[in-house]
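About this split. The held-out portion is used to measure sequence recovery: a designer receives only the structure tokens and must propose an amino acid at every position. Recovery is the fraction of positions where the proposal matches the reference. Here is one held-out target exactly as it appears in the evaluation file.
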């Protein structure tokens, strides 16, 4: 290993926003995406019953409502692929919380040691999603709810 001069490389931004309900995650995600893309089209994968649409009067974006489906990492990945094929230049996942709740519920249904179940079955699904998100070829912002104290 040697020291070398740092050079700027083309990177595709990936951002995670975490906070309690009402803390401004959706609004922040919209502002960040507009700062990254300018006026290029982007989509919000909305798992929060069209909550992102309250900002439609001030921000121009497309929305895909996922509130009526069981949201899993697989469903989110499929919708991200669809968005890419449709030509969107960025994707906001608002929110990934239902996907993590899906994994928790799945883990609770599997018999045996829950720690081992997570390690063998659920952690690989979670890591696969994170890897997919990080390698996605357009900017991505993912929000997630945090329990308030």
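Reference sequence for scoring:
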């Amino acid at each position: 290993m040697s020291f070398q001069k740092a050079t700027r490389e083309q990177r595709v931004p990936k951002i995670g926003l975490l906070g309690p309900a009402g803390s401004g995650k959706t609004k922040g995600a919209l502002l960040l995406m507009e700062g990254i893309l300018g006026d290029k089209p982007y989509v919000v994968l909305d798992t929060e019953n069209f909550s992102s649409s309250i900002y439609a009067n001030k921000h121009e974006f497309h929305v895909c409502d996922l509130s009526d489906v069981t949201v899993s990492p697989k469903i989110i990945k499929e919708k991200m692929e669809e968005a890419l094929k449709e030509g969107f230049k960025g994707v906001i996942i608002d929110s990934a919380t239902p996907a993590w709740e899906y994994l928790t519920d799945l883990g609770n249904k599997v018999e045996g040691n829950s720690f081992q179940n997570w390690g063998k079955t659920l952690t690989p699904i979670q890591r696969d999603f994170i890897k997919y998100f990080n390698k996605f070829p357009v900017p991505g912002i993912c929000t997630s709810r945090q329990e308030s104290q």
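Annotator remark: Residues 36-145 form a domain with the Rossmann fold fold (CATH 3.40.50).
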